[in-house]
Amino acid sequence: xxxxxxxxxxxxxxxxxxxxxxxxxxxxxxxxxxxxxxxxxxxxxxxxxxxxxxxxxxxxxxxxxxxxxxxxxxxxxxxxxxxxxxxxxxxxxxxxxxxxxxxxxxxxxxxxxxxxxxxxxxxxxxxxxxxxxxxxxxxxxxxxxxxxxxxxxxxxxxxxxxxxxxxxxxxxxxxx
Length: 176
Prior knowledge:
It is a single chain. By secondary structure, the chain is an alpha+beta fold. Helices cover 32% and strands 17% of the residues. The protein is built from 5 helices and 7 strands. The longest helix has 20 residues, at 61-80. The chain is flat and about 50 Å long.
């Protein structure tokens, strides 16, 4: 048995006195690749955090999300050309690499921003699980992410998989 928290991975928890009371059965999930696993994309991420933000600790949800969001914005700006417009930026995100964005290499898989995928949601999940061991983050399951299929009301899932409606957005659907 374990207590599983949806967030908490990062330096901010390590720095709290409460971290000393956590046991190996206090487990945290993260949709982003833990830095303890290393790799080219993690190294680039950490180098950029240090260079541009002076940050050297274990990044948490905010650092990961901010970094990936800025990386996606840069993809759009590069693709939008010399005089980018809002429409050009969106079009660039939807068409660069076929609309497939790799989340700066920090997640289990890419996101599909193509026009064809507009309004659809993924029905799979992929998370890493970590706990604290000797005051440091320890990646569980030998560093392998846990994957699975989202479950729930089959009609509702089908509605979102097929893009047949029910999705609230803040922007208009892309032109066909």
